[in-house]
Write a structure and sequence with these properties.
Protein name: Small ribosomal subunit protein uS17
Helix content: under 10%
Oligomer: single chain
Subunit structure: Part of the 30S ribosomal subunit.
Distance between the termini: 27 Å
Number of domains: 1
CATH topology: OB fold (Dihydrolipoamide Acetyltransferase, E2P)
CATH architecture: Beta Barrel
Order of helices and strands: EEEEE
GO cellular component, one term: cytosolic small ribosomal subunit
CATH class: Mainly Beta
CATH superfamily: Nucleic acid-binding proteins
Number of strands: 5
GO biological process, one term: translation
Number of helices: 0
Strand content: over 45%
GO molecular function, one term: rRNA binding
Radius of gyration: 14 Å
Largest sheet: 5 strands, mixed, barrel
Length: 79
């Protein structure tokens, strides 16, 4: 089974080796037939502390690193 890759914006880098990434998805509502925006925050592993607030990053699923971290930063999307 392939690992999921999501793209989002870093909203917090205050923790050591961790960034909080806000991922937005758009989908059509099944009853209203209207495009709806939904957001969710993920905590991702950033071992080098290289990403700052406002950066656009891609995250990939991984084995659990801590209680809340199940994602790791894959690559900077702007590079």
């Amino acid at each position: 089974m392939p690992k999921r890759i999501l793209q989002g914006k870093v909203t917090s880098d205050k923790n050591e080796q961790t960034v909080t990434v806000l991922v937005e998805r758009r989908f059509t509502h099944p009853m209203m037939k209207k495009t709806v925006r939904s957001t969710k925050k993920y905590r991702a592993h950033d071992p080098l502390n290289q990403f700052k607030v406002g950066d656009t990053v891609r995250i990939v699923e991984c084995a659990p690193i801590s209680k809340t971290k199940r994602w790791e930063v894959l690559v900077d999307a702007e590079a």
